[in-house]
Specification:
The protein is 68% helix and 4% strand. It is mainly α. Helix 1 (6-21) packs antiparallel against helix 6 (101-127), helix 10 (225-260) crosses helix 14 and helix 11 (265-284) packs antiparallel against helix 13 (309-329).
């Protein structure tokens, strides 16, 4: 198995370029700080006093009040003042101080370079017989999925550290709901939900038995299939708890983005299509609705095959990727809708009676911008989970991008690796070179044996089941949380 190949060189080059260019050229910074997004500046005390028709306290009197010489009462203004917030473009200086900005920049930039490595790898597999090499692009995709889950876990952990228990209760409740739904989904037969988990687990256990028998071990399945599914259901509950607040936030930004673009019907159609895209992802793995209908479409009393089985798998992959691209293209509409919450809160405040402290107005307006990177991560991380799990499903599951049987896009047929020409040592270095060659050959042999054993145990059949189910489950969690968010913001918040 070739270890030091073109893929590894491209991977190391991408990692080096990412490290060098991150401080100067960053996709994450461009997404937030190119001048397209506008934030609202909080009003000063002088502006609030002028709007309220009051005189600004003198500096000396304010200093004495802060030192305890005065009555210590905060400055208050009527809620119905004619307050209009000033807007300014989001720049790099503003974004660098935001919470979780470094995590956001790392995740987005890594995902961008992972996509570049993956595209290079796919092109490399199309023109070169690389079936014996490790698919570096798939490894980058799996790492992106893991980093996205880690980022969501980091965000969710702060809800559990909060003194208020509301967010923690929501995460736990949705986690238990996800556990129940996952257990119900895992007992559905493959005739209805074609994940391929049953063939994948059967293939895994069979390969483990062969692997153990070849090494002289007495092997038996240590856990039953039911126990494996229980562990998988627990993982689904964990993922569901991570995705509840991203779904609730998506519902809020979707409603605000649609209202913000009321005069642009085409953008509204795209926003609705983006919001409902996880529903289409769910339908793609429902066999009677998707595959069976297209492969055996009823026409009168007969059936017509509209698309072959392999072509349907390719269409499904392309559909998920295009839906993720649509959601990524609408990122700024959702982010601007979130930033507009400052003005929305001010308009709501004007309808109320009474007075409010000036510091509370400033905090409310500033707090919206302070959580911009958190909202961005909550919007992008689920999309990255679906996108890169689909790309890993294609590569590790041995699928093809081609819509016609035999079209390019599948890894070439297996061929024996070509041996490298031997290096002829000099007359005085034969002993050192021989010893170094032996060490290198022994190391390469051990690594090659380990990777060969891993590829023999974890086959494409197993990867198809795992990544298909993971992609479907992330979309299902998005549907459950976002639809509940729509109900919450449309009905419960109105009462």
């Amino acid at each position: 198995m070739a270890l030091m190949g073109v893929q590894l060189v491209a991977s190391l080059l991408a990692a080096s370029v990412m490290q060098r260019l991150a401080p100067h050229c960053s996709l994450a910074r461009w997404l937030l700080c190119d001048g397209s997004l506008f934030r609202f500046k909080h009003p000063s005390e002088g502006e609030l006093c002028a709007l309220a028709g009051k005189q600004m306290p003198r500096a000396g009197r304010r200093d004495r009040r802060q030192n305890g010489a005065g009555d210590g009462k905060p400055l208050t203004v009527p809620k119905d003042i004619d307050l209009r917030l000033e807007t300014t473009p989001v720049n790099v200086a503003d974004a660098l101080v935001l919470r979780f900005f470094l995590e956001y920049q790392w995740l987005v930039d890594f995902a961008a370079y992972a996509l570049g490595v993956y595209l290079f790898t796919e092109g490399y597999y199309c023109v070169v017989d690389a079936s014996k090499e490790v698919n570096i692009g798939a490894i980058w995709c799996v790492l992106t999925v893991l980093f996205s889950l880690r980022t969501l876990h980091l965000l969710t952990s702060h809800y559990f550290l909060s003194e208020e228990g509301g967010e923690r209760s929501v995460c736990l409740a949705f986690g238990f709901l996800s556990l129940l739904v996952a257990m119900l989904v895992l007992v559905v037969r493959e005739d209805y939900l074609e994940f391929g988990l049953e063939p994948g687990f059967a293939d895994l256990f069979a390969n483990l038995e062969v692997f153990a028998n070849q090494r002289g071990y007495e092997w038996s399945v240590p856990v039953t299939k039911l126990t494996v599914k229980l562990f998988l259901a627990a993982a689904c509950a964990f993922i569901g708890a991570l995705l509840v607040f991203p779904g609730l936030r998506l519902a809020q930004t979707h409603l605000d983005a649609v209202h913000m673009n009321a005069h642009r019907p085409f953008v509204q159609v795209l926003l609705h299509a983006s919001f409902l895209s996880p529903v289409l992802v769910l339908v793609l793995w429902v066999k009677p609705i998707a595959r069976d209908f297209l492969e055996n479409a009823p026409v009168g009393k007969s059936t017509v095959t509209l698309i072959s089985s392999s072509a349907f798998s390719s269409v499904r992959l392309w559909t998920v990727v295009l839906l993720c691209a649509l959601r990524l293209a609408l990122t700024r509409y959702h982010l601007q809708a979130y930033l507009n919450l400052s003005q929305k809160w001010v308009e709501q405040m004007k309808k109320e009676a009474g007075r409010i402290a000036a510091i509370d107005i400033q905090r409310k307006v500033t707090r919206v911008f302070c959580y911009l990177t958190v909202v961005t991560l909550q919007y992008l991380a689920p999309i990255l989970l679906v996108l890169f799990s689909t790309l890993a499903l294609k590569s590790l599951g041995d699928f093809s991008w081609g819509l016609v049987p035999g079209s390019p896009g599948t890894a070439p047929a297996t061929a024996p690796p070509t041996a490298a020409p031997p290096v002829v040592p000099g007359p005085g270095d034969e002993d050192d070179v021989d010893e170094m060659d032996e060490d290198i050959q022994a190391t390469v042999a051990r690594v090659t044996e380990a990777l060969s054993a891993l590829r023999a145990v974890l086959t494409p059949v197993f990867y198809r089941g795992i990544f298909a189910f993971f992609t479907w489950w992330v979309a299902a969690c998005q549907v459950m949380s976002s639809l509940f968010g729509i109900y919450f913001h449309q009905y419960l918040m109105q009462n």
